[in-house]
Design brief:
Layout (H helix, E strand, L loop, with lengths): L2 H39 L4 E4 L3 H14 L11 E3 L4 H10 L7 H7 L5 E5 L6 H12 L3 E7 L3 H6 L5 E5 L4 H24 L3
């Protein structure tokens, strides 16, 4: 096995997928950024959730909001629902794992807030439950999925934004999700601070 060639193929696959997605995803990403900015300007917050690598993406995005992305600015209200081990384990233990995000959305979410729901398959049961809770509490949902969008794609309301990466590989989907999150951060900063 030639590892250098294999690594080169992975770089190539990732780059090609990103370029293939550019035209299809740029519009929904811009719409999602405007929704998030409108929410933040109205003193709302962005709640983010996902499992595994998507949990890391939720935390990454929240950190970029709370601290800063590439420009100096005041912190923005972002909260990852994936970080409080006591909350997560108590909900999973007392109820079930499917409710670890939805209970937090119901407790912390307010009308006008945004839920960033991340699931590469589009079928994560606890993320689906969080979206349902968000709709019950009048939050807008921005969903990052992959493949064909799964069950999450079918849950989107008219005001929601679905950003679906049309790929099968979880790793490639996650790579586009990370770029999407960076595009959202950049767009939020541009809308709030202007473009240099």
């Amino acid at each position: 096995m030639d590892l250098v060639s294999r690594i080169g193929e992975l770089f190539s696959e990732s780059a090609h997928l990103k370029l293939e997605c550019m035209d299809a995803l740029a519009g929904p990403i811009a719409t999602a950024a405007q929704l998030m900015v409108d929410c933040l300007k109205a003193d709302g917050k962005i709640l983010a959730c996902g499992n595994g690598g998507s949990a890391a993406d939720a935390q990454h995005f929240s950190a970029e909001l709370l601290n800063r992305f590439e420009k100096e600015r005041p912190g923005l209200a972002g909260l990852a629902l994936t970080t409080d081990s006591s909350t997560l384990t108590s909900i999973a233990n007392d109820y079930d794992f499917e409710q670890v995000f939805s209970k937090q959305v119901r407790a912390l979410g307010r009308a006008g807030d945004v839920l960033l729901a991340i699931s590469t398959s589009g079928n994560s049961k606890n993320v689906i439950a969080a979206i349902q809770a968000a709709h019950e509490c009048s939050l807008t949902v921005v969903a990052l999925t992959g493949r064909n969008g799964g069950a999450i794609g079918e849950l989107m309301a008219a005001k929601d934004v679905h950003i679906c990466v049309p790929a099968q590989s979880t790793a490639r989907i996650q790579e586009v999700h990370l770029l999407t999150l960076h595009c959202l951060c950049d767009a939020i900063d541009c809308l709030l601070l202007g473009v240099d």
